[in-house]
Design a protein that fits this description.
CATH superfamily of the largest domain: Tetratricopeptide repeat domain
Strand content: under 5%
Structural class: mainly alpha
Number of helices: 12
Number of strands: 0
Shape: elongated
Order of helices and strands: HHHHHHHHHHHH
Helix content: over 70%
CATH architecture of the largest domain: Alpha Horseshoe
Radius of gyration: 31 Å
CATH topology of the largest domain: Serine Threonine Protein Phosphatase 5, Tetratricopeptide repeat
Number of domains: 2
CATH class of the largest domain: Mainly Alpha
Largest sheet: none
């Protein structure tokens, strides 16, 4: 019996609470809504806080309280893990108040929202690039901030994802035997991420792609493409003279040099015959 009474009382409180909140939403007392929005935020009722803030922010736009209210709004969405909306609100806050009380924190948090939206390496990395850009802006604007090292750690992690993504894309073309596309993708990746942990492998894949592309080309295109292979061979050997791919690279060199030597002999023979 006591349990039933307790349940009924709880239900009554909840119903009353919901009713009060609905009345508050319909109220035209914006100061009350502002106060209650802060209360809801402090008590971690973020959904209610943001709903009220969406009603009152336009009303307080040109006031001294606007910056704080916008900050609370962004923080509430972040705490609800709605990182896309939170990021937009943090960035908007920085645009409106570039030298305001929350500028440093909002700049960092805007970049962190993009970090939290960044997916695993094989997916689109737009959020990763946006986050790196955001953290770099943060470091540039607030070089003495206590969170600079944290920002640098996030950047390092994000760059690893970009390296992984670039490597996977390039290797995909290679595995599909799309050697022309592989050459372009590998060249771009090596240029953008010059100190990649995959550098040796990618340089080998590029060299082998050049060789296989030349081998499969029309006779009229083979000489210039084998010459490009030979040039790339020398670049590879200069950087990795003791490579784990030495056996494969040596064969590429021998076949390429043999073709170019034979090609030169054929030209000379043709000249002599004439």
């Amino acid at each position: 019996m006591k349990v039933r009474i307790f349940i009924v009382l709880v239900a009554c409180v909840l119903i009353s609470s919901c009713g009060d909140y609905e009345k508050l939403l319909k109220s035209t007392d914006y100061d009350l809504k502002k106060a209650k929005a802060k209360e809801y935020y402090e008590s971690k009722q973020y959904a209610k806080a943001t709903e009220l803030l969406s009603q009152i922010l336009p009303r307080f736009r040109a006031t001294e309280e606007a910056e704080e209210l916008n900050w609370i709004n962004a923080e509430a969405y972040f705490n609800m893990k709605q990182y896309d909306l939170a990021g937009n609100y943090y960035k908007s806050l920085v645009e409106q108040y570039p030298f305001g009380k929350y500028a440093e924190q909002a700049t960092f948090m805007g970049a962190k929202c993009d970090y939290n939206l960044s997916p695993r390496a094989e997916l689109d990395q737009t959020s990763s690039r946006n986050s790196i850009e955001g953290f770099n802006v943060f470091i540039s604007r607030f070089p003495n901030s206590s969170r600079v090292q944290e920002a640098k750690n996030y950047i390092k992690d994000l760059q690893e994802r970009l390296v992984e993504k670039s490597y996977m894309n390039a290797k995909l073309y290679y595995n599909m035997r799309e050697y022309k596309a592989a050459i372009t993708a590998l060249s771009n990746s090596l240029k953008e991420f010059s100190d990649s942990k995959y550098r040796e492998e990618m340089m080998y894949l590029k060299l082998n792609s050049l060789y296989l592309y030349a081998e499969r080309s029309y006779a009229t295109k083979q000489k210039e493409r084998y010459q490009a292979t030979l040039d790339d061979y020398f670049s590879f050997m200069e950087e990795y003279p003791e490579s784990r791919y030495s056996k494969e690279v040596k064969k590429i060199y021998q076949d390429t040099a043999r073709y170019l030597k034979l090609g030169e002999q054929n030209v000379n023979n043709l000249g002599n015959n004439q």
